[in-house]
Specification:
The chain is about 30% helix and about 25% strand. The strands form 2 sheets. Strands 6, 7, 8, 9, 10, 11, 12 and 13 form an 8-stranded mixed sheet that branches. The chain has a 5-stranded mixed sheet with strand order 1-2-3-4-5, with helices on one face. Helix 6 packs across helix 9 and helix 9 packs across helix 10. It is globular, with a radius of gyration of 19 Å. The model has no long low-confidence stretch (mean pLDDT about 95). Bound molecules: zinc ion (2 copies). One zinc ion binds next to loops. The site of one zinc ion has 6 residues, from helix 2.
Length: about 250
């Protein structure tokens, strides 16, 4: 998810294909003011290496990438840079005007304001995606508007705090009635650490958010059944509900 606020492009998580999607959205890794990770599950981080490498080779001068994420993120970035060490050595040997390794600055975050510049504020709070721990969600504020990117989480106190009065609440969501039918334990296991459609509606209603956006839908909805997902959210929440798709642009 890319957030454009004031002069800043802020990237939240970096799953499969994120650099290609950024190009289609008219930006790129060299232009972001920060990469904010909610947690280190592979579907949210698999292309962090691509963000690091593309920013490094596309920047004419040293352009440190600021990475924000839960405690454990520093180790993840160190391991990613170690994985890239051969590629880094090839490029350093080849390009005379490139004599620095990818500069990455990591801030491990838990709770409170983590980024503040030019009237744009990003606030983190702990979420509950157990047994994945720690995890965080983010609230972005700019010019009196507020957006929550919850990440993978079940309803919890930290999520309620982030969502309180937000104009838009984006939730990775699971539909229990479908997952329950999949006869495989590892799919059934996902129900205990994702917000269901019903829980998403309950969180939204409790926090009086202005709009709900569903993303990262588990399982991927059959075309034509999207209204069923929205109806389940609407059982608890009477505001607008939108289903996200790649490259969808929403104004907060
Ligand atoms: Zn996850
Ligand atoms: Zn996920």
């Amino acid at each position: 998810m890319l957030v454009k606020a004031g002069p800043h492009h802020l990237l939240f998580d970096a799953g499969r294909g994120v650099v290609m999607r950024m190009a289609a959205a008219g930006t790129g890794p060299a232009l972001v003011s920060g990469l904010f990770l909610t947690h280190l599950h592979s579907d949210h981080t698999t292309d962090v290496n691509d963000v690091i490498t593309t920013r490094w080779v596309m920047s004419p001068a040293q352009n440190p990438l600021q990475v924000f994420g839960p405690v454990t993120t520093a180790g993840y970035i160190d391991a990613t840079l170690a994985m890239l060490s051969e590629d880094i050595s090839y490029r350093l040997a080849h390009h005379e005007d490139l004599n620095w390794a990818p500069p990455v600055v990591v801030s491990e975050v838990t709770d409170g304001v983590v980024f503040e510049a030019d009237g744009v504020r990003v606030i983190a709070a702990p979420t509950d995606h157990a047994p994945v721990h720690p995890t965080v969600g983010y609230r972005i504020e700019h010019e009196g508007r507020s957006l929550v990117l919850a990440g993978d989480t079940v309803p919890c106190e930290g999520l309620d705090r982030l969502c309180a009065g937000a104009d838009m609440y984006v939730q990775t969501v699971l539909r229990r009635s479908l997952v329950e039918q999949i006869p495989m334990q590892r799919f059934l296991d996902t129900m205990d650490y994702h917000s269901s459609t019903h829980q998403t509606g309950q969180t939204a209603a409790r926090a009086s958010v202005g709009k709900v956006v569903l993303t990262h839908m588990v399982p991927a909805p059959f075309p034509g059944t999207e209204h069923e997902w929205i109806a389940e959210v609407a059982e608890a929440y009477d505001g607008p509900v939108v289903i996200a798709e790649d490259l969808l642009v929403l104004d907060v």
